[in-house]
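pinned: reference chain
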Amino acid sequence: MNFAAGEVWVMPRSIWKGVMSFGMVAIPVRLYLATESSSKVSFNLLCPEHRSRIKNKRWCVEGDHEVAWGDVVRGYEYEKGSYVELDDDDLAKLPLRSSKAIDIAGFIKDEELPGELYYQSAYYLEPEKSAEKPYALLKKTLDKTGRVAIAKFALRDRERLVSVRPHDGALVMNTLHWPDEIRATEDLDIPEDVKVSPAELKMAENLVNMMATEFDPSEFKDEYKQAVLKLVEAKVEKRQIIEAPEPEAETTVVDLMSALKASVEKAKKGETKTRRAVASSSRTARKKAS
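pinned: its structure tokens
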């Protein structure tokens, strides 16, 4: 992880602790959130007249009164308008192994898990001191075999399907969508048997190869958040607001091949510009060194 100068990052408190097991091997672990929403811009809802914050109240429609958060009870609607109450003790008594442990059911090949649809939240798994060796054993075994552990785990009133894999020296657990939560593509209007000429395919391959790069997350910044903060600062200081630049004019393209050729030419110009910048930077560095 990268931090700004002088910034100290402190691991938050664990949100769960229990046992992760595979076969007869038990690994006491602690669970931590692996991500945070620091890049999210938060807005408050205000009253248009008084410019003060609007509060959401828990309101009982039947009795026409507000209900304090501490008095709210959890209910499941088993038929229209009829509820059965469930409290924390009821849920704690559910006969689920997953409520007490991350019970690994098996190990699959990494490519068998279509992550673009299945993956949800990410969590770090940290071993207790007494479990450092079995934790390391599982991590190294997954690394060597290229396998991903699949398990079930109950968190926040839900049983979840999860995967466990090595990442950056640690084990990371991802919650996954259940198969019945993923919508099928049959209802989409996707055209079939679309003819693509060999020339179009070759030109597209050239464009992809010219734009090929290595993924470096640090190169991507949340420009929206920064723009909002600058807007807020300008409004507070009553400065002139700089408007967004006009988008680059697009050349009207009459067919797919023309679009591909124009894209390749644009990519070539970008490559040339980059090479010139690198060369200029190298010459400047050599002059300074001499």
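why pinned: Residues 1-9 have pLDDT under 50 and may be disordered. The two ends are 36 Å apart (CA to CA).
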